[in-house]
Amino acid sequence: MTKRTIIIGGIVFVLLISGIVYWGIKDESKRQSGQDQQEQKQAQNLSPINENDHIIGSIDAPVQMIIYSDFECPYCARFVDTIEKVKAEFGDKVAITFRHFPLVFHKEAVPAAIASECAAEQGKFWEMHDKLFEDNENKKFNAEEFKKDAGELGLDQAKFNQCLDTNKYKEKVQRQMLEGKSVGVTGTPTTFINGEFVIGATPFEDYKDSEGRQQPGMKKIIEGKLR
Question: Are 80 and 32 within 8 A, CB to CB?
Fold first, then answer.
């Protein structure tokens, strides 16, 4: 084999590898673009915030934040810190709404969701929301603990217990879960900011992802919607 043949072979090899990398990047770009378009199409079917939702802030706020969540999900519990910071930073500029998406492998997620609706019946949804996530973090997550929470919140205990024991709001919880699936929700928390997908327990401030890439936090995402 001549030196010239070796050089030509090397050039061909480099060009071949470059082509593979190029088309790999192009295919990934097309795949990501297609995924983004699919998410946007699904998000168009998202029900806007309405009077039947549990809302923090004004229903007419310029930024509409819809959170699909699961009280038994540890990442959702972590996301509560982000929600609190959004409330403190933006006030009535953001309408925050909680919708149910109990994951099938969380056996107490549906009862917890029903407990929150039973508390809402007595005007204490967000107070129970906070209690349930505290139960999550304290590893005390069962119906008896939810009833104890109701007592601590000053709810009519008998009314709450009957509501929880009869699964009064199970259909509502399941309906919200099905709607979440229809708009592309597959895990929790999933948040829509004016219809834009934000997946996972996104921190309030900017952060680096698992691959070391800089990502916008919830603060920057919301600021972008307010411009």
Answer: no
Grouping H, G, I as helix, E, B as strand and the rest as coil, residue 225 is helix
- Residues 103-129 have pLDDT tens digits of 999 999 999 999 999 999 999 999 999
Pair of tokens at residue 147: 């009833």
Residue 41 predicted with pLDDT over 60? no
* Domain residue limits, the chain: 1-44, 54-226
Cα pseudo-dihedral 180, 205, 28, 75, rounded to 10: -40
Q: What is the dihedral of CA 139, 164, 57, 93, to 10 degrees?
A: 50
Tokens 């009833």 -> residue: 147
What distance, in Å, lies between the first and last C-alpha atoms of the chain? 65
pTM (predicted TM-score):
0.82
CATH of domain 54-226: 3.40.30.10
User: If DSSP codes are grouped into helix, strand and coil, which group holds residue 199?
Assistant: strand
